[in-house]
Amino acid sequence: MDYIYELRLKVRDYECDLQGIVNNANYQHYIEHTRHEFLRSENVSFADLHNRGIDAVVARLTMAFKTPLRSGDEFVSKLALRKEGIKYVFVQDIFRLPDLRPVLRSTVDTVCLINGRLADCEELNNAFRKFF
């Protein structure tokens, strides 16, 4: 996989369930935070887009769990991006550190609503063109 962005994070105690592993819902938070940080790194602001009537939204999300994370584990969340029609497809994988054991494989399809209507977004196309 040709990743274009990565973010290192650490599991916090409150993200774990009674079994001592990260609750499944928290993995969605990790990958969402990674996407948002990637957008910031590319000078793309959700707030600015929204104020101009452009809303990037998740249309579909799949997650395959491989190895659980536990409190205190450090991990790296990696991101790849491709364009399929009007969709931006983020492939996001999480690996435990330091052994890089696969933790999660996810695919997030996002689309843009421009003034409430599904549409191709030239602004994001331009921002991400170097990755396609």
Kindly summarize this structure in a few lines:
Helices cover 23% and strands 43% of the residues.
Per DSSP, what share of the residues sits in E-state strands of 2 or more residues? 35-45%
Q: What percent of the residues sit in helical stretches (DSSP H or I)? A: 10-25%
- Structural class, judged by helices and strands? alpha+beta
Helix run count: 3
What is the number of E strands? 6
How can the largest sheet be summarized? 6 strands, antiparallel
Q: In one word, what is the shape? A: elongated
Q: Span from first to last CA? A: 14 Å
C-alpha Rg (nearest Å): 16 Å
Keywords:
3 helices; 132 residues; 6-stranded antiparallel sheet; alpha+beta; 6 strands
Fold blueprint:
Elements: E1 5-10, H1 24-41, H2 46-51, E2 54-65, E3 74-84, E4 87-97, E5 101-114, E6 117-119, H3 122-128
Antiparallel strand pairs: 1-3, 2-5, 3-4, 4-5, 5-6
What does this structure look like?
The chain is α+β, with helices and mostly antiparallel strands. Helices cover 23% and strands 43% of the residues. The protein has helices at 24-41, 46-51, 122-128, and strands at residues 5-10, 54-65, 74-84, 87-97, 101-114, 117-119. Strands 1, 2, 3, 4, 5 and 6 form a six-stranded antiparallel sheet that branches. A hairpin with a 2-residue loop joins strand 3 (74-84) and strand 4 (87-97). The radius of gyration is 16 Å and the shape is elongated. The two termini are 14 Å apart. The model has no long low-confidence stretch (mean pLDDT 97).
